[in-house]
Amino acid sequence: MEVGFLGLGIMGKAMARNLLRNGFRVTVWNRTLSKCQELVSEGASVGETPASVVKKCKYTIAMLSDPSAALSVVFDKDGVLEEISSGKGYIDMSTVDADTSSKISEAITKKGGYFLEAPVSGSKKPAEDGQLVILAAGGKELYEEITPAFNVLGKKSFFLGEVGNGAKMKLVVNMIMGSMMNALSEGLCLADKSGLNPQTLLDVLDLGGVANPMFKLKGPAMIKGSYAPAFPLKHQQKDMRLALALGDEHAVSMPVAATANEAFKKARGLGLGDHDFSAVFEAVKGKGSSGDA
Amino acid sequence: MRYSGGTSGPYRDPFSSSSASSSPSLALREPLLPSPMAAPSILCPRIPIAPLRRPSLLLPRSFSAFASPVSSRLPDEAPKGKEFSGSVGFLGLGIMGSPMALNLLKAGCDVTVWNRTKSKCDHLISLGAKFGSSPAEVTSSCNVTFAMLADPGSALVVACGTNGAAEGMGPGKGYVDVSTVDGATSKLINKQIKDTGGSFLEAPVSGSKKPAEDGQLIFLTAGDASLYETVAPLLDIMGKLRFYLGDVGNGAAMKIVVNMIMGSMMASFSEGLLLSEKVGLDPNVLIEVVSQGAISAPMYSVKGPSMVKAAYPTAFPLKHQQKDLRLALGLAESVSQPIPIAAAANELYKVAKSRGLSDQDFSAVIEALRTKMHSSEQ
User: Fold this and answer.
1) Do B229 and B98 fall into the same domain?
2) Alpha helices (runs of H) in chain A, residue ranges in sequence order
3) Each residue of B129-157: pLDDT tens digit?
4) Per-chain mean pLDDT for chain A
5) B337, A186: Cβ pair inside 8 Å?
6) Which of A112, A179, A263, B350 has the maximal Cβ count within 10 Å?
7) Residue A23: helix, strand or coil by DSSP?
8) How far, in whole angstroms, is CA B89 from its chain's centroid?
9) Which residues of chain A does CATH 3.40.50.720 include?
10) Residue A276 DSSP class
11) What is the ipTM of this complex?
C-alpha cells in the first residue's frame, strides 16, 4: 500500500518509519525538507510540497504540531487542497480543535476528497513501537480503507462518528493527563519539602488504585530533573487551552483543568516549552520567581 | 502464631489441642490471589527501612518495591522472621476497622474490640472477639492495640481522652494508630503514649474497603522501630506491603500526599467525564480510551462506569477525601508549598459535601461540577 506522509516531527518521523518497515511505500514531506533525508535512506520518497505528495498518493496522512500548521498544510499555496480530488483520502492525525478539523473536512470533501480526522493518544515511544491509540472520526469508508496503516501505527483504533468527535476525545484525554501531571508534581514537591523520599512516594503510588504508566515512566526522570521531550510542554499547554475552550463553549465547569493550564503557562514563561511536559514540575517547584533558572 | 505458655491464658489455638503446637497460624488465611501489582515471590518478609532522603535504599530499589508480598507465601509454609504472640486490641470498627479486625480474628489472633457504637462490635464478638467497654479497657488488657478512627479529632479523643487508650497503656505495650491524621495530631498522640512508657507507631494505610477486606492494604508506618518489627506479622495479615518511613509524622505525611494526588486525579477525571458527556461523546468510550493509554489507572476503570450512571457506592467516603485534602493544604502551608490543583479539587469536594454527598463514595465529586439551581431545591 502506498501512502503520503506530511510532517516528520517527533511523532511523524516515528510513524512514517513504522510504515516503511512494514512494507508500505511512503512519500514524505516536511516543512524543513532536510528532515526527510533520514527516511529517504530508509526507502521513502520525497514530495517537495504537500500538493505534490497528494498528487502522487491515493491516501495522505498528516501529523502536524498544532491547528495553524494543520490549516497551513491544507490551505496555503502548494497545499493539499490544490491536488485533492475525487477518490483521494486525507487523514489528519494532528491534534487540533474541532473547528479546525471541520474546516479542513469541509474543504477536502468539497473538492471530492474523503477526510478522516484521527488524532492519537500516545507520545514518542508508543509512536516508535506502533502502540498508539487512534481516535478517528469522519469518513467511515476511509476509516475502513486506511485500517492496514492504522494496524501498523497503533494498538487500537476507535471510530467515534462525525468529524469533531476525534478531536474532542483527544482533548479530553489530554486535559486529564495535564491535570494528573500537575497533581503528581504537587505531590513530589510536597513529599520532598516534608522530608520524605520522592522515589518512595512513587513506589507507594505504583501499588494502588492510582497507579498508571505515566507516573511510573516519568516520575523518576522528574526527580532527576530530566525532561527529554517525548511530548513537548508547549503542545500540552495548547491542548489544555483547547480543552478549556471546548468547556467554555458548553459552559462546563473545569476548575482543576484551568489551574493546570496556569501551571503550564508559567512553565512556558520559564522557557520550558520545548522540554517534555513533565517539566511543569519546575514551575510547580516555584522556580523562576526571583531570577533563578 | 506460636503460643507461649501452656493451655492456660487467653491465647487461642484452633489448630491443636496441645500447647506445643508450632504450626504457624499465619497459614490460616486463604492463599491470596496475586494482585496485579504483586511481584514474583520473595520469601523473606523483612522490609528494608525506606530512607527519609535520597540517595539510596539499603537494598536495591527494585527489592523494596517487591518486598514481602504476603501473597507469595504458600499456605503451609512457616513465615520467616518473628511472629506475633500476644493479645491484640482494635479500636474503631467502621468501614476499614471492621474488615481489618476480622482478618486478624480469622488468622487466629486474640482480639479485643471497642467501638463508639457498641452494636458495631456484635458481628466480631459473635465470631469470637472479646469486647472492651472503653479504649482504656482494651489497651490495658492487650499487648498491642490498633486504632482506626475517622479523623484527627476522633483519633485524639480515643487515644488521649477520658477512658482513652493512653490510660491503659504502659511499658511493654504498643499502640498502633492506623487512622489518617495530620502530623501534629500524630505527634501529640505519640507523646501521650510514650509518657506512659508504652511505644507508638503511626501506620496509616493506603487502600479502601475492598483492599481492607482482602488483606491487601499498604501500611505507611513511622515511629517506634522495634514496635514496627513486633507488629509486622499482624500488618502482614491485614496488608500486602508495609513501609517504615522513620520519625512520627512521616507516615502521616506520606498518606496525606498520596491521597492528595488521588483526590486531584478523581476531580480531573470527573471533569473529563462531564466534558465528554456535554460535547456529545460517550463517557464510557472515554473510560475505554483512557484505559488504553499512559494515564490508565485502576481507579478510573473501577469507578468510571458507575460514575457515568451517577452511582457512587461507598468504598471511600467523600467526607474523608475532603478531610485528606484539607490536611494536605495544611501540610503544604506548613512547608510553604503552593498546591493550587489540590486547592481547586478541595473546593469541589466541599461543594459536593454541601450537596449532601459526604457519605457517598468520593467519586461523587463529579456531582459538584454539575450546575444546580439553589432556590427551591432541598
Assistant:
1) yes
2) 10-21, 37-40, 50-56, 67-75, 98-110, 124-128, 140-145, 147-153, 165-193, 198-205, 213-223, 233-249, 255-269, 280-285
3) 999 999 999 999 999 999 999 999 999 99
4) 96
5) yes
6) A179
7) coil
8) 16
9) 2-161
10) B
11) 0.94
Q: What CA–CA distance (Å, rounded) separates A156 from A154?
A: 6
Q: Which of B37, B261, B268 sits opposite A256 (nearest CB)?
A: B268
Number of domains in chain B: 2
Cβ–Cβ gap B292/A156 under 8 Å: yes
pLDDT > 90: what percent of chain A? 97
Residue B76: burial class (beta carbons within 10 Å; 0-12, 13-18, 19+) = exposed
Q: Which domain holds residue B305?
A: 254-377
Residue type at B350? K
Taking a C-beta distance cutoff of 8 angstroms, is the pair A103, A272 a contact? no
Span B11-31, mean pLDDT? 39
Q: How far is A190 from chain B (nearest CA, A)?
A: 6
CA dihedral B211, B215, B217, B219 (to 10 degrees): 160
Q: Output the domain CATH number for residue B366.
A: 1.10.1040.10
Indicate the pairing of strand B199-202 with strand B217-223: antiparallel
pLDDT, average across residues A32-59: 96
Q: Check A170, A218, A234, A266 and give the catalytic one.
A: A170
Q: To which H or E segment does residue B340 belong?
A: helix B340-354
Architecture per CATH, A2-161: 3-Layer(aba) Sandwich (3.40)
Query: Which class is domain A168-285?
Result: mainly alpha
